[in-house]
Amino acid sequence: MSLNASKTKVMLFGNNTNSSRLDVKIKRSQIKQVTQIKYLGVMIDPYLSFDLQVDYAAGKAKRAAARVSRLYDGRNGVKIQIGIKLYKILVRPHLEYAVPVWGAVKDKEIEKLQQIQIQCLEQTVGTKCHSSSAAVEVTAGVLPVKLRIRELCCREFLCLMLLDECHILRCLWNSSCREALRFTPLEFIKTMSKQLEHALDVCMLQPRCTINVPNTDSPVNMFSLDLLGHRNVSNRNSVELKKYCDAIQNFISQQQGQSVLVYTDGSVFNGPAGCGACAAVLNPLSAEDGIQCTSKAVGMKVSSVTCEIEGIILGMVVVLQYFRLCSSRKFVEYLYILCDSSVAIDLAVQRYHHSFGYELFHSIRSMEKELLEISVEIHLMWIPAHIGIELHNKADRLARLEARNIHLEISPAPAFITFDNALNLSKDIAMKSWQQKWQREVTGQLTRQFIPQVGTKILFPDCRQIGISYCRMLLNDTMLNDDSYRTGTSDTPVCECASKRETVEHFLVRCPRYKQFRSDLISTVQEIGTSSKSKSHLYLSPNLLIAPCWDANLSKNEDKAIKDALFHYLASVQRNL
Known about the structure:
By secondary structure, the protein is an alpha/beta fold. About 50% of the residues lie in helices and about 15% in strands.
């Protein structure tokens, strides 16, 4: 390999290297000695402190943020939710590029990156300078920089664990070290991923694999049946929900004795990737055969979708055994597998996805062929969970019991975890750490009352001007007199109606100046209160109007209707908060 002397530099690493000079030549060409160089996008210095890399990343992020800021003009510009996405896509990648390599910098350097993130988010959501930084991140749904670095290090840890033991990176991993708080990159990744490594325990990590689309020439024996025409009843009122339940019960009654019905379910104990099990309950053609119930341990670190797919496979196995022992039957039998997971049904029918192993889809294909050979046609049907179907509830209880037994080490289970489940586990660890940090924060107390759980999805209005007012109410830092008096920008906290302090509650619920605009807001809340599942009276309060999903009895659609009424009220009063 020939080297280009004009593009080659030499650097001496270690302490007290400033006075040391190296005389290196390539074909009589003197090689320049440098004290900093950019290598593969990372700034390297002789001490490997990576302070220069922090400044370099911060500078690139600021320039990217400046380009994004052109889309804002005060209260005008792109929607808040689009601004948050633009930050994640265009700005944050500069802050976290190759961060597992240089993330072991001093806390003051990390704080530089944190401040850039806060400044970008404050500009995006239109906050004032007095707002809590932690509350801004929770409102925008953006992970703090420190926790984001740890999550990225956990991802690199998982990639390293998939390498062969003889790989050079695994050899360096085994010999990595640190001196006091100075880490080598691999040792830093190892330290940051200790909690994930402990959570994985003895589970073996399975690599990602994409399953090819099945051959279209092969006969199809599995179909998806949508009895309701959709797969979502969580946002429906009580009248619609009863209508859907009656339709499902009527279908079950019609098929009773005519077709085999199998109810399947999956359950995961303790976390998004935990001890998982599945169960299947078979309702036979004849009542004399009796209900058949069976459960299966899926794994120690599996997702709920994996358990649901395994439940579908278990249901087909039970049906195959049933028909092989059946003395009399029709020329073509119809099997209806009733499952409450629409994702599992779609994956079972399509039979390819990078998140699941080949064995899972191979089992589905094998069972489909075997049932086709004995003239059994398979229909996967989605049903809502917990709507009073006795046999489906029984399958749910069996799956939960088996998952709990795995956790208590009563039932054995395979010790494996897929790459995507491990990623979800890493994300869950980061979210739990963020939740603990949010609960310990001394600032943003009112925001914590509105948004107690980090990661809560906030419904922002389409109008940026209204969105800024809404965000300022969430952050308890508006232009109302009470907040302005607290920050020193108003002479009095009293409202212009001269009755009380102009707080958010007074502005939304009590101020007589906006009574005519408040009528639609009140009527919407009252109408939703009478039509909701609980039939409870809703009290018009700032918590109900501002907080996302404040009342657990309300559906997502009902909460959205309240937020739309609030946004309409803010637009009607023409008040910039």
